């Protein structure tokens, strides 16, 4: 029996354009069901695709603290989320839900 060789999937390798990044974040927000750490992880994926060091500089944060905040292991402060979203060139928006 021949073994199948697999590689680890990294979504950051496939987020190439701002439109793809925005669509990915939008999908993750919809799937998160209120899980802020899940959204933070999605932002971390986008930041890695963009370049974590540059995003950290643009957000005014250290690279290490940015990795920790966007690891998905915890929920970062909302001001951190806002800084990262701005540094990524994305916008958060709201719309009425159809409850």
Structure description:
The protein has 99 residues and is an all-alpha fold. The chain has one domain (17-87). 56% of the residues lie in helices and 0% in strands. The protein has helices spanning 18-32, 36-50, 52-59, 63-69, 78-87. The mean pLDDT is 93.
Quick recap of the structure?
The chain has helices spanning 18-32, 36-50, 52-59, 63-69, 78-87. It is mainly alpha-helical and 99 residues long.
Task: Describe how the helices and strands are arranged.
Layout: H1 18-32, H2 36-50, H3 52-59, H4 63-69, H5 78-87
Please tag this protein with its features:
about 100 residues, mainly alpha, 5 helices
Q: List the total number of helices.
A: 5
How far apart, in Å, are the first and last alpha carbons? Answer: 53 Å
How many domains? The number is 1
- What is the string of helix and strand elements? HHHHH
Low-confidence stretches: none
Helix content: 55-70%
Biggest sheet, in brief? none
DSSP, total strands: 0
Beta-strand share of residues: under 5%
Mean pLDDT: 93
